[in-house]
Amino acid sequence: MAQRYVRVRSVEGQIYYGLLLLSRSVQVLDAPPWLKGQPTALHLEPERYQLLAPCSPSKIVAVGRNYASHAAEMGGAVPQQPLLFLKPPTTLLEVGGEIHYPPQSQRVDYEGELALVIGDRCADCAPEQAQTKIWGYTIANDITARDLQQQDNQWTRAKGFDTFCPLGPWIVRELSPGARLQTFLNNGPNPVQSATIDQMVFAPEVLVSYISQIMTLLPGDVVLTGTPEGVGALQVGDSVVVEIEGIGRLDNSVATRHLSPQYDRLR
User: Fold this and answer.
1) Residue of 161, 183, 165 lying closest to 105 (CA atoms)
2) What is the radius of gyration, based on Cα positions, of the chain?
3) Are 216 and 182 in contact (CB under 8 A)?
């Protein structure tokens, strides 16, 4: 089995990077693994930690319509160049966490995706060089308030709510180009999304190269590579699972977002 790199919070509240062992204990590293973190003598037993999103990026750069089938189902053409948008780091959500359905929206969708984790500073990189900057791979769910996306005619609000980027559960260093991505709703036996990642219009190294010619990617940054066809609505109470062969499964539930009392006074 491939090594699984995690980020955890101990019961004492300390946050660590580490290696998840077959026993489910975590061998703590002295730094993030892409910064050459080395194993320490500290081990955390399963009952002594909580899995977090596996990295803490300065930014999350996402790509729209990177599968031709998804572009078609959304009624749009395949872009001639990668279509980029940003999700704030506050959208991150760990495996098992609750996606909060915002009261501003009447249509919230799942979008299962492969996520890239950057391991080294990347600016103005050619695709061949960009490939060496991809440290590892994890799973993402690019949650989208679809009605707000259409209403605003741009994507910041629709993509930017807290909890709108489940990420995890861990990072692996290598992934088969033909790995299958699947999304399941409410423990259904049949996937609502199913595609191999080599069906992307723009390959991961092309995406990283393109982004690096616009903004510098830093160690720990995340690139979401787009979703295949089959996106659909979530409801409060739903469970959603995104699986990628060779990585694992990202499992989250949907709950109502409860706003603070000050919200009504701000409207």
Assistant:
1) 161
2) 18
3) no
Total domains in the fold of the chain: 2
The CB density around residue 147, as the number of other CB atoms within 10 Å, is 16
**Category of 264 on φ-ψ map: left (φ > 0), alpha (ψ -120 to 50) or beta:** alpha
Euclidean distance between CA atoms 193 and 170, whole angstroms: 21
Element (H, E) at 116: strand 112-118
State how far the Cα of 66 lies from the Cα of 226, in Å rounded to an integer. 5
Residues 47 and 113 in one domain: no
pLDDT tens, 32-87?
Answer: 999 999 999 999 999 999 999 999 999 999 999 999 988 888 888 889 999 999 99
CATH number at residue 125: 3.90.850.10
- Euclidean distance between the first and the last CA atom of the chain, given in angstroms as a whole number: 52
264 lies in a domain?
no
Q: Which domain does 45 fall in, by range?
A: 4-51
Residue 208: its H or E element: helix 204-212
